[in-house]
Design brief:
7-stranded mixed beta sheet, 14 helices, 6-stranded mixed beta sheet, HXXXD-type acyl-transferase family protein, Chloramphenicol Acetyltransferase, alpha+beta
């Protein structure tokens, strides 16, 4: 039986500085207007490894030795996230105060961790850190000798593209002693507002002040449950086939979105006439090539994100074929998947920065939990994490965030480190939606048990499905 929860005891916290700070680096790095859209809050990327032959002390020594050189290339992460004294806008003080290396231990084996319950697993492994730290690199040893490597940082500095670039660069640096690419750190000059700023009036309705009066109370958000799931490559392919027609081939994300949209509608039932889906969309592929150099954008770690959303009648979602619901998802994403959208966001934030002077910030309405029930999907599937920094590949890679008072449901989809086409999902849901997932006759989202993640003996049913999918 899995343990009730993972208890983590911190052994040490050490500040490590860049050994070779880049010359003439600005003392303060201004956040771009796109960074300010999602704002400043902690985010983690957690990678789990089986026991390395060299032992955990060797892992700690390698991390401690490599950090100063790594921070020299990723210098803003040796700084602090601060508020500008005049405007209140968050920015990065690049003063080489140092990043944090945390070493901790958990008294359970990885095979005994209840990974399916995200709060009792990932939520315990992600060690809280000082609010202004730009980077907290965390190593947690388990009783079996396996370990977790967590990248704790601030969303102001990275989006999904940037967050997953950190462990991949780390792995390359430790294995080869160098990097085949250099990160692009300048932000505000990359996304300049137009003069005068201009944007669609509809953008005003997409945002609201992040303030208690406009959010669910803390007891309501505390009722949300967090679960981790595995979606096999065979189930992804089956969903995509069912969501496609001769006239339109659905993407894998559209197919999964259609399936979970139907689960959301089933959970809502007669409690509301409508429900919503939303997606976080990476804009890098759609930035204007005449204004943005493609190579620079790929090396840029900061935020290039926007939300797409669509509200629909519960009855329509429930009764429509999967292909029609997938087409609705695709249409919603296509509406924001254009370079003009990101220019408008830059201009909108330029006009609305005054909220920071008052100690506030903005948030997307669809994520608050107000209005019709909404499920926000964020996909890390395009981002491959090269996590082998000399001690083997991870068997699990999950993003993790503590969303505070935000009351919408959320699912973050990542590719499995096995690179076999399967996906990992970490979800935050109302109990009714979790029940709908559990009752799904197609059983697409399967609980992420230690066995399914490769930390225990495989489930015979999973072995049978894998064998069947290869026939």
């Amino acid at each position: 039986m899995p343990t009730e929860r993972v208890d983590v005891a911190v052994s040490s916290r050490t500040l490590l500085r860049a050994s070779d700070p880049p010359p003439d680096f600005p003392a303060v790095l201004q956040a771009s207007n796109l960074d300010l859209i999602l704002g400043s809050f902690h985010i983690y990327l957690i990678a789990m490894y089986p026991a390395p032959a060299a032992g955990f002390p060797a892992v700690v020594a390698a991390a401690r030795d490599a950090m100063p050189a790594f921070l020299s290339r990723f210098f803003p992460f040796a700084g602090r996230v601060v508020a500008n004294a005049d405007t209140g806008v968050p920015e990065i003080a690049c003063d080489n105060t140092g990043a944090e290396l945390v070493v901790a231990r958990a008294g359970v084996r990885l095979a005994d961790v209840d990974f399916a319950d995200a709060d009792r697993s990932l939520g315990r492994i992600a060690v809280p850190f000082q609010q202004d730290l730009a980077l907290s690199l965390q190593l947690v040893r388990f009783a079996c000798g396996g370990f977790a490597l967590s990248w704790g940082t601030n969303h102001l500095l990275v989006d999904g593209h940037g967050l997953t670039a950190l462990p991949s660069a780390w792995a390359e640096l430790l294995r080869t002693g160098g990097l085949s690419w250099e990160p692009h750190h300048e932000r505000a000059s990359l996304f300049r507002p137009r003069d005068p700023p201009r944007y669609s009036a509809s953008l005003d309705a997409e945002f609201t002040r992040y303030a208690p009066a406009g959010l669910p109370n803390s007891l309501l958000t505390a009722t949300l449950v967090r679960r981790n799931y595995v979606v096999s490559a065979a189930d992804v392919d089956r969903l995509r086939a069912a969501a496609s027609t001769p006239a339109r081939r659905a993407t894998r994300l559209e197919a999964l979105s259609a399936h979970v949209w139907k689960l959301l509608a089933a959970a809502v039932g007669g409690l509301d006439a409508h429900c919503r889906m939303a997606w976080l969309v990476d804009g890098r592929p759609r930035l204007d090539a005449a204004r943005y150099d493609g190579a620079t954008v790929r090396r840029y770690l900061g935020n290039v994100l926007t939300y797409a959303s669509r509200e629909a009648a519960v009855e329509a979602v429930s009764s429509s074929p999967l292909a029609d619901v997938a087409a609705m998802a695709g249409a919603a994403i296509a509406e924001v998947f254009r370079w003009e959208r990101y220019e408008e966001l830059v201009d909108w934030m330029e006009v609305h920065k005054g909220v920071f002077r008052e100690g506030g910030k903005w948030t997307e309405v669809v994520g608050t939990g107000m209005g019709s029930p909404a499920l926000v999907v964020s996909t890390f599937v395009p981002f491959r994490v090269e996590g082998d920094f000399g001690f083997g590949r991870p068997r699990l890679v999950f993003p993790w965030v503590r969303p505070g008072r935000l009351g919408s449901a959320a699912m973050t989809v990542s590719r499995s480190p096995r690179e076999d086409g399967s996906w990992l999902i970490t979800a935050r849901m109302w109990p009714r939606l979790a029940d709908a997932v559990d009752a799904d006759p197609d059983a697409v989202l399967k609980p992420a048990t230690a066995a399914r993640l490769g930390f225990g003996a495989p489930d015979p049913a999973d072995v049978m499905q894998h064998a069947t999918s290869r026939m």
